[in-house]
Amino acid sequence: MANTYVDAVTKRVDVNGTSFLYREAGEKNGIPIVLLHHLTAVLDDWDPRTIDSLAQKHRVIAFNNRGVGGSKALRQTPSTIWQRMQWLSFEL
Question: How far apart are CA 21 and CA 9, in angstroms?
Fold first, then answer.
């Protein structure tokens, strides 16, 4: 795991048939922080200085949500905000 966000390798994990891209920074100790972003943001939208600051004391995980960036979707991306909110509430 990289100590800085700039050096973090983009990884992929499959969850129930959906592929998600993510990056980690910091050490694997303490309380992890999972970063959630706005509707269409991707991994590169995070400010590395913010993540590096958090990563000094935490493991930080940022990911591309379902159907955004390099993460895959099981079906077509919904066209309305209401459909999108329902679609994003999936079981892990």
Answer: 10
The per-residue pLDDT for range 38-56, each reduced to its tens digit, is 777 788 888 999 999 999 9
Q: Which of 60, 18, 59, 64 is nearest to 41 (CA)?
A: 64
Amino acid letter, residue 76: Q
> According to the model, what pLDDT value does residue 43 have?
85
Question: Phi and psi (nearest 5°) for 49?
Answer: -65, -40
Looking at the chain, list the stretches that DSSP marks H as alpha helix, in order from N- to C-terminal side. 48-55, 81-88
Q: Which residues pair with 21 in a beta bridge?
A: 12
Q: Are 1 and 9 in contact (CB under 8 A)?
A: no
The radius of gyration computed from the CA coordinates of the chain, to the nearest angstrom, equals 14
